[in-house]
Structures
1.
Amino acid sequence: MTTETYLPNGLPAPVPENDGLDTPFWEAAARHELVVQRCNSCQNFQWGPEWICHKCHSFDIGWTPIEGRGVLYSYERIWHPVHPALGSACPYLVILVELPGAGSIRMLGNLLGDPEQEVVIGSEVEAVFEDHEDGKFQYTLVQWRTVQ
Amino acid sequence: MTQESEPSIRGRVAVVGIGATTYYKRGAATSPEFVLGLEAILNAVEDAGLSAGDLDGFSSFSNDRNEPVRFASALGLPEFKFSSMVWGGGGGGGSAAVANAAAAVAAGYANYVVVYRALAQGQFDRFGQAAPVPTVSGHKKWMSPYGMFSPGQQYAMRVQRFMHDHNIEQDALKAIALTSYYHAQQNPRAVMHGRPLTAEKYDESRWIVEPFHLYDCCMENDGAAALIVTTPERAEKLKQPPVYVLAACQGSDYRQAAPAHNAPDYATSNFKTLAPRLYETAGITPDDVDVAQVYENFTGGVLMSIVEHGLCAAEDVNDFFKTENFRAPDGKLPINTSGGNLAECYMHGLELITEAVRQIRGSSTNQVRDAKVSLVVSGPMVQPVSNLVLASERSVR
């Protein structure tokens, strides 16, 4: 089965770290669930994954499901391909999303839809799970689309 | 309080020699990178009026491939006393490498420390291209699968937000690019010498990644640069007028390297704590700065650095960022007077530091009139960053 993805195949596949730091995120994404780190001691949200809570220095960090809704914090429209797989994929949009429901941590992703659309900082976006099933490595990316 | 009791580097070290190779377009150097490094070091030795055997310390940054012990052996140095490397990629460590060299001299670890950077992008990986690899881990994992690879793509996101927050117009970035190209036309060393840039050509140039046009991005080059520091007492007996280090600092603001673009203060060049510390160490204020070399990885980094170094308020950027204000010899704030990373050579900003030295010596091809205090800003937006103040006297007041 061929799946539809925002960017073409051939980009590096994200693989969980050897030390297991981010495994829960990728397992959840494969189930189409969004989880992030949250400190079990002080309840601080944290992203990207780290072994220690930067607020209270507890090593007891858990993973918590969050709502895939955020605010577009910044963006960039990429016109010049720097990777061989992107030769005919430009332009495309990368956005930075702030998640007010999760301690205002931020996540990167592509903004789905017309790559030449007008992008508005501050607009509401929601998470979309994009399965990559065709290559040697299977994984699911969290992507974003504007809330209509 | 006596100045001697302060734990300060101010006035305790001087730059006595600068050197470089010919600067080449990427791939155009005919010598291997290591040989370029040797040439730059020997040119700095000659400029200082030293002999190579006087060198006893090395300092570099950005994971330079050329190990100091190899240089020391190749040059037959009688005694190797000090080496140091600033962690972190990009040009953030440029002034920090001078700081480490200065600290070594002030502490007496070594007498003549050479700061060097040799970089032949034509012989090794290019910064502006991503190697095709099957998988990605570490912090790049949160970016590469979304097509976010190159430094330009890392930093456009920060600059976009800064421009949004302060209503900065594209013309502000354009003024920075035009300034570097303007200065390069008077600098025969510059790769872009003889290739002027006009406002129209900038406007018509392609986007690399919004908000960066082609001319907002540094070049990719081959070459090497070097400079030598020693104590004022030794410096005053040498060939060149001493150029004193008033301050050299490295640093990074709170959690600026948080993964996946999670620095709490995001739209910043990462100089908010460092710039005040630099001025305090140097014993100067922003008003004392006569000329500034501000690292252009991308024009947006220059924009935020100038604001964070107190040289222009964010709300005044659209009015102040004009080429006439940035030009030598008599702009209000002459910047990047050699052509810098955009138009002289991308030698990871070490070429900016050698130009800052020339401004104090009075030997720049775009000399600022009566320049006494020369500022360098290294590698905005990376972590860590660094900065430097050079001066004609051991203290300004």
2.
Amino acid sequence: MVEGPPRRVIPNLRNAVDKRFSRIVTAGAMSTFVVLALIALFLLVRSAEVFKEFGISFLTESKWDAGSGDASQPAVFGIAAMLVGSVIVATMAMILAFPFVIGVSLFLEYYVGKKIRAVLVAILDLMAAIPSIIYGLWGYLVLMPHAAGWASTINKYFGWIPIFSVDVENFDASPFISALVLGMMIIPIACSVTREVYSRAPRDQIAAAYALGSSRWGAIRAVVLPFGKSGLIGGMLLGLGRALGETIAVLLTLNLVFEVKFQVLASAGGNVASLIASRFGEATPLESKALMAAGLILFILTLTVNFGASFIVNRSTKDAS
Amino acid sequence: MSAVIAENSAVAAVPSPKKPWVNRRESVRDTVPSLIIAVGVAVASVLLTGLAGPLGFYVTFVISFLVASFVSGLRHDSVKAIDKAMATLITAGFVTAFIPWVSILFTVFKRGASAFYLGYFTNDMAVTSADDDLGMGGLSHAIVGSVIILAIASLIAIPFGIITAVYITEVKGRLRGLVRVMVQSMSGVPSVVAGLFIYAVVVSKFGFSGVAGALALSILMLPTVARTAEEVLKLVPDDLRSAAYALGASQTATTFRIVLPTARSGLITASMLGLARVAGETAPLILTAFYSAIFSLKVTGQPLASLPMYVYQNFTTGTDTALTRAWGGAAVLLGMIFILFILARLSGGRSRR
């Protein structure tokens, strides 16, 4: 047996510099953990007093009164109305946006040519970057005069359904109008995910559907929509997370009222994020702590929704690849 | 059986291959009559019935176009009819979604233009109140403030964003899955919560300042930079890395001298997208940088103006001239974001599938 050349010793590629480099990069990457943890920690510490004093009633009470500073009128803080309002506005925005998310995604992926699609997708990306203050400005000054008219029409014919009823005939600055604006804002965000998943629908199955004599819509219904279901849900959840946390567009288009209400066309609603932005300027020390508490709850809420969304999106894109 | 086949082949010799997914001329020819009918019905209903205005026209147009395309499809069969109706419906959904955006762009630039005059970009609002004539005052302070805040925010967010991406794609640390999830959830942090956090940490001790605003924005900017940078670094071919290692380069050298330079244009794109994402954020600035009407370059110890806050302030003032100023600020802000976007596109590192 011939003796081969001596076994070469392969040096450890990670020398001292590399080790330091990898340590530094790891430390840098941990910044995301640190920031998220610090946000939770600081808001918790700052709002601990509020939770101690008001307990669970902070979530169930819907009064917001900084008090007069003495015992005659104690401060009361509760965000029930704001929390319910946030959920109502965000849910309505989702319902309004949902058909358009499907429509826009399908149109871009299956109804236009490649060149036009590239242009339209660029425009869609641009729309996602329009600042919320501009949506709010437009929503208040341009959309509201029209939308109040639509609301009044809906109220005229469907007023017998409790959620479409109003106590006073004022349709301005209602949850409905905020939801319209929010819906517009989340369409491009949800579409970017949904479109991506729709585009990964198996080509062979689509071709098979055509081969069996299916029409374009038939192929979409049989292959694309079932395939993209979880992507659609994930995209919508991502939009929901955005809608729940949206501040300025809602602040400009919604009349904040501290009362739990389900009349979506009436000029009264609630929103946690807008509450924080609107009250912060003239808040008393205790009130600003209460706002921190509201922020903490908003943070937890959106974090939960986003975790759900990224879980579903990751799973659906993993299936696809 | 064989007789039938023989008969068929006698009638149609060799069927030419069909491509049902390709848009053919005839589909266009089919659409035009439905379109004409739909316009006719819509015009008639607006003129003759209670439906009024562009909205009434649009709604009746869509509905009658839907019906017309369904009926024209029925000449073939029900499958064709449903297919055509759905195509109309999906196109209508797309067009309907685009109308408000067109309206936004149109209003912002049209109404914003009436606030513009030469001094608008060089004056501040120190001696001008929001109610004053439109020929006075300007937003130079807001533009400069925005640029300063964004510059500081990028100094923090871009390095950390790229480091996070390097950790995921180059170092491939054990926690990379978790880091990715963290980046995703960080991108979901509501902007007002980022503002609250910086308020609690910085502003409550040192007062409103440009630096505080920049810190809040960097929290919102980091995830966008990190995610885009990760996509971009993944596009760097592994062959390049292998070649570098084969030549004896360390991982550090490979990253700094091969991977990052290769991905440079993409990393610029990532930074621009991050900037565009936060340039218009208002809520965190209300709690951190606040607003000042005076031109200033000082980033600590005093409030610093910014474009979104300029728009917000003028909006809350609410008079006609103030609202015109708000539109003017919005137009400048939108223009700035568009420029960032175009720069991002030009540097052209966005992943292609």
